[in-house]
Write a structure and sequence with these properties.
Number of strands: 4
Number of domains: 2
Order of helices and strands: HHEEHEEHHHHHH
Radius of gyration: 25 Å
CATH class of the largest domain: Alpha Beta
CATH topology of the largest domain: rbstp2171
Structural class: alpha+beta
Length: 196
């Protein structure tokens, strides 16, 4: 019997190769390809739905500790590419090129951008409890910090290195690096974009 263009012997060979995680290539007719897609459509849909669910429910909790002393914790989720783009645009200065007559991107206010990404990726319950906590704002103002919004709270309570590690983790949550790979820095992304 031949199914999908494979004989029984070929199927046995495929099963043996699959056990070894090896793959063989086989040319299929258009009809055979369409039939394979139809038969595997449910698996594809399940995989796509599971990936979307995973992305929507992925969270990471940070504990802020210094010299072994625990201060507080908060939870973040991945931030959408569209939101990341809007934040980057919001905190980038633009300069008008007189010769070309167009606006070009200038410098990114990295400090405000990082604080905004951290704020926007923080889960709502922690935003209310920490970053938007008016009592905390008043306490920080008594310590001499100028607090106008939640970003100022993040700037006041997190150290630069802590913010950098949180940004790297948010990148990992967003799929910008595998667990085994090094996180791609903003500078590397800009260089790669400039190359392309």
């Amino acid at each position: 019997m031949v199914r999908w263009g494979f004989s029984i012997l070929e199927k046995e060979k495929i099963m043996e190769l699959n056990k070894k995680n090896e793959v063989i290539e086989k040319d299929f007719t258009e009809e055979e390809t369409r039939q394979q897609i139809r038969e595997n459509e449910n698996l594809l849909l399940e995989g796509l739905l599971a990936a979307a669910d995973y992305a929507a429910n992925e969270e990471m909790t940070f504990e802020i500790k210094r010299e072994g002393k625990f201060f507080f914790s908060f939870t973040v989720t991945p931030i959408s590419e569209e939101s990341m783009f809007k934040l980057r645009k919001k905190y980038t200065s633009y300069v008008k090129n007189k010769r070309a007559g167009i606006k070009v991107a200038g410098e990114l206010d990295v400090a405000k951008f990082r604080c905004s990404v951290i704020y926007n990726s923080t889960v709502d319950r922690d935003k209310e409890k920490i970053w938007d906590n008016r009592e905390l704002w008043r306490g920080l103002e008594k310590q001499g910090h100028v607090i106008i919004n939640a970003l100022d709270v993040i700037e006041a309570v997190l150290l630069p290195g802590e913010k950098e590690r949180i940004m790297e983790a948010i990148d990992r949550l967003g799929g910008y690096a595998d667990d085994d790979e090094e996180v791609i820095s903003d500078e590397d992304k800009r260089i790669e974009t400039a190359k392309n």
